[in-house]
Amino acid sequence: MSDRPALASSPSEQALAQLLRRRYRFIDPQLQPLRVLPGRGIYTIASKAAPRCVLRACAGASSANELATQAQVLRFLQDQRFPASRLVPAVDGAGIVLDEGWCLLVTSYTEGAVATFEPAHLHQLGRVLGTLHVLDTPDASDFPVSEWHPDFYAYNAVVGSDGRLSVIDWDGACRRRRNPPGGRSRVAELMKLLGTLHRH
Predict the structure, then answer these.
(1) Which residue among 28, 37, 181, 186 has its CA within the 20 to 30 Å range from the CA of 50?
(2) 140-152: burial string, b at 16+ Cβ within 10 Å, e else
(3) Residue 91: Cβ-neighbour burial (10 angstroms; 0-12, 13-18, 19+)
(4) Whole-prediction pTM
(5) Are 73 and 144 in contact (CB under 8 A)?
């Protein structure tokens, strides 16, 4: 990708690398684009003396709110030892970084193969979804509620070399919606999973 000013329609990899060095202490970070759209991008980060990570960079306050929510959810899931992407905090411990007009969120990169619709993977997906729905969420007005994962299906899960499954791509996770009557909705993710099974 060619260099652009820090506030161009898409992030400049050079500018993002500078922010990663300064705010996360990555050593010589090398970015590989996964998906780049106007005002946002997703990249893998390869850096010396550090595991591979994933960077999400967005422009604007509304995007900052979205990434802050994702960081909050991932931090909670990590505390619960739920099999999901891990939040990588900045050097000051913050879940996201706001700098030079961009908002950054860094997570772990999950090594392995994308899950398939074979019975063993589907069994794990169902079990993981069940675990997700019985987590004791914080009783706080600022904790996002309702749907956990907007795209809970096999292609957003990775199976590691140990055979264990981890859920990835939490973009749009738990948007800040007030609790629906009867508590957190447990139907949305199940319907997504069943819908994909129907097509396979």
Answers:
(1) 37
(2) eeeebbebbbbbb
(3) exposed
(4) 0.83
(5) yes
